[in-house]
Amino acid sequence: MGQIRSSYLGICMRTNVAIIGGGPSGLLLSQLLHKSGIDSVVLERKTRDYVLGRIRAGVLEQGLVSLLEEAGCADRLHAEGFLHDGTLISYGDTSFRLDFAENTGTSVVVYGQTELTRDLYDAREKADGKILYNVEDVAIHDLENDAPCVSFVHDGVQGKLDCDFIAGCDGFHGVSRKTMPESVRKEYEKVYPFGWLGILSETPPVNDELIYATSDRGFALCSMRNETLSRYYIQCEMSDDPGNWSDEAFWDELKRRIPETFAEQLVTGPSIEKSIAPLRSFVTEPMRWGRLFLCGDAAHIVPPTGAKGLNTAASDVHYLYRGLTEYYATGSEKGIDDYSEKALSRVWKAERFSWWFSSLMHRFPDQSEFDHKMQIAELEFLNSNRAAQKSMAENYVGLPY
Ligand code: FAD
Ligand code: DHB
Description:
The chain is α/β, with parallel strands linked by helices. It is built from 13 helices and 21 strands. The strands form four sheets. An eight-stranded mixed beta sheet has the order 7-6-15-16-17-14-18-21. Helix 10 runs antiparallel to helix 11 and helix 12 crosses helix 13. The longest helix has 28 residues. The radius of gyration is 22 Å and the shape is globular. The site of flavin-adenine dinucleotide has 32 residues, from helix 1 and helix 10. Flavin-adenine dinucleotide binds next to helix 1 and helix 10.
């Protein structure tokens, strides 16, 4: 743990829960705590516009939707989000529909992470919630006693935030996880030998549901944000650069990876965003050390196949928020003591699903012909077997909290 600089402490604050990171995890936790009368301060390294400029997830499980309702932030989602009762899965020119509604009685909502984050920022600002942007040099202190604190620099001024608890919601590259001593922290990781090249384009989606496609040329995903805004991804080389891909080259490659009927219907246009995301599975255990709790990408990463990243961050927030409200309402530490175990139990299942779906749908550089035959056999089994479809649909719509 870092030392607080001995210079003049320009900002001194006190709160119940210091939240490091103003991404979806930190903002949702802060808003839910506020609804229960628990004070928090969010420290965010970037600006609000920077956070809102990151194009990321697009599919929300009902569990996350319920949390947003509880946080009083679901009005726009209900008005503008799209309920999806199924998705198309294709391999070569064969495709089948995975019916969520029939297999699970529930559905998912297509609503961008950018919009969800904007709704949370708006709610926090409306409630006069304290968010400090452009915060630098965040360091965590005194976690092992009951008076922890966070030091930081804001607008060039040293600050100190005293608190009861710290929520590390600062993503994969944040400081919170690294504050836990290596002797208590165990990390599990798998890096996939490819990335996803994604584009956003102001064109109508090629289908009214998502299409997860695999082909001899690799994986592709057709997604959307609304009737006039589409999000498409193709598997690319790990070392690739978005600058290597003209829009035309992207569209040509996408068309080669999706069934011909959709390739013919695809409406193309200029991209308004183009980026590459690496694929990684990562979990750190435990998710709590002393008065510090890790939440979301700070504790785990999934490859994006199956859209579990944001949704798993939400289930962490659920367990932590319940534990903290129980503590402040009754003084019981049971909920916060159980946090790490409960969160990790669900995290590992989301890791398994994302790893399985990624392994099924991508071409691996060192893949043998046998490995490829196994993928096809599994897809054909999934195509024809109700029990396999039910299992996949249950995981896709989200396992219970
Ligand atoms: P983040 O969104 O990473 O937020 C963490 C916040 O903490 C950031 O705002 C960061 O600026 C801030 N921060 C970091 N360090 C510090 C510090 N030292 N001090 C203060 N603040 C700090 N999931 C899907 O389901 N589908 C997708 O298509 C998808 N695409 C993705 C693409 C990319 C490139 C990435 C990185 C992730 C993607 N994900 C996707 C995952 C999903 O977006 C994340 O799971 C989700 O953003 C997790 O939210 P979070 O709040 O835990 O972390
Ligand atoms: C999106 C991303 C995903 O990883 C996924 O599985 C589904 C949708 C998206 O960005 O729309």
